[in-house]
Amino acid sequence: MKLHYQLNAAFTALLLVILTVAGFVIYSLLLNLLVQNEQQQLEQKGEILVSALNEQYQSFSDVDRIYDFLQEQDMQLILYNSRENRVLVSTMPGSVVRGFGRNNDFSDTQKNVWEYRTDKFVTSRITILPASSNLELILLTPMKDLQAVRHTFVIRLLIVFIIGAVVAVLLSSILTNKLVTPLTRLKYQLKKIEKRKFDDIEPIRATGEIKEVAKSVYDMANELNRYIRSQQSFFQNASHELKTPLMTIQGYAEGIKENVFDEAEKEKGLEVMVNEVKRLKKIINEMILLAKLDSEQASYHPKQINVAALVEHVADRVLPLAAEDHVTLKKEVAEGMYIYADEEKMLRALLNLVVNGVRHAHSVVKITAAMNGKQKMLVVEDDGEGISEELLPHIFHRFVKGKQGETGLGLAITRAIIEQSGGKITVENKSDEGARFVILFPGNA
Ligand SMILES: Nc1ncnc2c1ncn2[C@@H]1O[C@H](COP(=O)(O)OP(=O)(O)O)[C@@H](O)[C@H]1O
Ligand SMILES: [Mg+2]
Fold first, then answer.
1. Does 365 sit in the ligand 1 pocket, CB within 6 Å?
2. pTM above 0.70, yes or no
């Protein structure tokens, strides 16, 4: 069942329960209230009557006139002598009064509803003063009258309830519609995501939690879109990168096989083939490493590493290459600095940066390690030509490389390692010359 109907059904059921309970309570209390109210009114009337009697006839000497007076009243009453347990006069037919006498004990002053056949009467008794007269005026109202009042009241109540319920259900329908419509729209957008039609996704109008859910859905779609695109470009780039050396190798291998080269060319061909195979191996190794880093399968063994020792280690490894390129390595490392990371992987990350630096530097590559406020900062900079503006925003992406580039995977690996260690890496061109890579670790890393 649709959510819209479910909500409406639940609301209507709730409304019905509330109205039924309210109706039942009102119905059962109503008669009691009416009886009480009627008794009060009878009492008031009785008192007026008695005071009128008192005024007109002072004492109750002239009994006949009193009887006449009472009999003229347009109400149901009985004048009762409690000492003699006798009805003196009544406006009701004699048979009815006798019937009352048979069914009810007139002397029981507590009982205020009398029965006569199937009828009931609400009674109110007023003692006529002085008490020594032993006279009581008993006023009566048939219960039927009260029940008729209750009947009309209940019918009106029912009409009000029905109108109220219809309005409430209509209102709830409008409200739930308003609530559910954005959800339905969101469902359509999700269908588009399912079919990967990311460009067709439209924003929906919503408020509150639905708005938050919609935002999460859009974020998820963007992330998914980005991921799919990066995977596509990764495969395109990877196959391209693998194909180029393979074609070179194929070309030379076929040439050698078909004897189209002289000795010197053959020799050169073999050298190129060996180099290309090495390059292929490097690309494949780096791709495997990146895939592992990505899938977090790479066993990552973090521990406290002394940064000075780490930089020393990096320098030792790069020194031969630097000497070959006539590049000086400078180090400026704060003592006693530690970072919490996997040592081997951090070495790899820094080596990638420093080897790049040496390859692009004119004469100097500098490694700095220092505190930057609460953060730990590692900087690798050189005095080369810097990174071209169009390459700069994408430099950490896979297979992005410049003219002298090799695999284009080194910086991607470096970034993956740094981020896995909880750090951040950025790059900028220095104002004078060369590139500067800055790694920041939070103070507690
Ligand atoms: N210090 C640097 N100075 C200038 N360009 C650099 C520097 N480091 C990296 N680059 C550029 O970034 C590209 C990508 O680097 P990297 O991911 O390490 O791949 P690779 O070194 O295999 O080419 C390089 O090809 C180069 O063009
Ligand atoms: Mg590199």
1. no
2. no
